[in-house]
Specification:
The complex is a heterodimer of chains A (about 375) and B (about 30). By secondary structure, chain A is of the alpha/beta class. Chain A contains 13 helices and twelve strands. Chain A starts with 7 loop residues before the first strand and ends with a helix. Chain B has about 30 residues and is mainly beta. Classes of the chains: A alpha/beta (about 375), B mainly beta (about 30).
Chain lengths: ~375, ~30
């Protein structure tokens, strides 16, 4: 509780506004790998929460199929083009899941308040196996089996060994059922609900991706900005909040329509432009030139960097951000690897002497 | 200093709560 007797605090986090509660005490520590015994206890804890929350509701979101599947796919559209194999897969999966939802016998499912993010990353565990569950960001209304399905879905990520995973899943369910019986109708839909929740959180991550550039750039001062490859304007909103004049360019007229709709400010001009041709901006105009997830598509990076150099004033900042491909399976992001190799060459970010390319971590230590 | 730019920051970022769910980002900041 703060000096004004408020329990809940609003926090301006990099991904947007979040709510925080200061716990006076949460015993133990976070452990991702839990023993069978601890999964049993986690099941017990969830069941006790559900005993309390069943048939109750909050003035918060209700997790209906539209929220889990439709809204999430809409958010994903800003990141995956419609003509990709990945998006085709997502659409086909969404359709299949919506059909399964339509055939669920809802009357047999328990309803109430759900946490929707119970898994080992959101609990502290003591040496004696006492569990404290936290992170209620996604608390809302829905079928109680959503919590069960989410926990089981996460177990599939955490536990790679099939036999170990199976025994821990069974232990968790046994723990739950030692407190409350799980209706068979709920057990039958665990899998499809788990995939649906993965859909939902994919949408959440897409929405959180907005405005992430402040994580990198908030410590720099700038008044004039060239945003090269603004896309749907996902970073433009924040840039405009920091600068007096922003030129946002993109090759796609369709993306610019969305960007103009999203960023309604006199200080921004969204224009169609090809980054690989002469930029139609006066020299030494910008304090900041940004490339956010755009250079992976550009072949002649040398030309683009020479343009950036011309358009920046002395002391100006060139900002480049790309996905680290070592964690990303999608083929189109192989362009990021080429970019990293080019940047290490173009800007001579490499170990002197033996001429070998530096890993990211070694390069970071040199800065 | 190379090609008129000086590398002043290298940074990586990922959502701590969801480190396994979303791709990590790397960023370069250069000064002219």
């Amino acid at each position: 509780m703060d000096s004004k007797n408020n329990f809940i605090q609003r926090i301006q986090a990099p991904e947007g506004e979040r709510m925080g509660v200061l716990f006076s005490f949460a015993k133990g520590e976070k452990r991702i790998q839990l023993s069978e015994k601890l999964h049993f206890k986690a099941g017990e804890s969830m069941a006790r929460i559900h005993q309390f929350s069943e048939n109750k509701s909050l003035n918060r979101i209700t997790y209906i199929p539209k929220v889990l599947l439709n809204d999430s796919l809409e958010s994903l559209k800003g990141f995956l083009s419609s003509n990709t194999v990945e998006m085709d897969f997502m659409k086909a999966t969404q359709e299949r899941l919506l059909n399964l939802f339509a055939n669920i016998n809802e009357k047999e499912l328990r309803k109430g308040i759900v946490h929707l993010d119970i898994w080992p990353d959101n609990m502290n565990v003591t040496e004696n196996g006492e569990i404290t569950i936290f992170d209620f960001d996604f608390c809302g209304n829905g079928w109680l089996c959503l919590d069960l399905a989410y926990y089981l879905m996460q177990l599939h990520f955490i536990e790679k060994d099939i036999n170990e995973r199976s025994s821990k899943i069974q232990s968790f369910l046994n723990g739950y059922e030692s407190i409350s019986k799980i209706p068979n109708e709920e057990k039958q839909i665990f899998q499809m609900l788990g995939v649906s929740l993965y859909f939902f959180y994919l949408g959440v991550q897409c929405r959180r991706f907005e405005n992430w550039s402040n994580v990198f750039l908030s410590k720099y001062q700038f008044e004039t900005v060239l945003e090269m490859g603004c896309g749907t304007g996902k970073n433009t909103v924040w840039l405009v909040s920091q600068a007096n004049q922003v030129f946002s360019f993109d090759f796609s007229a369709g993306m610019l329509v969305i960007a103009k709709d999203k960023v309604q400010s006199e200080n921004v001009q969204c224009q169609k432009a090809d980054l690989t041709k002469e930029w139609d901006v006066q020299n030494e105009f910008a304090d900041l030139v940004t490339f956010n997830l755009v250079l992976e598509h550009v072949e002649d990076l040398g030309f683009v960097f020479s343009q950036a150099f011309q358009k920046l004033r002395k002391g100006g900042i060139l900002f480049i951000c790309e996905l680290d491909i070592s964690l990303h399976p999608f083929k189109q992001y192989q362009g990021s690897y080429k970019l990293w190799m080019f940047c290490t060459s173009y800007f001579r970010i490499r170990k002197r002497g033996n001429g070998k390319w530096l890993s990211f971590n070694r390069a970071k230590r040199m800065v | 200093m190379e090609n008129g730019f000086r590398l002043i920051e290298l940074k990586e970022w990922f959502d701590q709560d969801n480190a396994l769910k979303i791709p990590r980002l790397i960023s370069f900041v250069f000064e002219k």
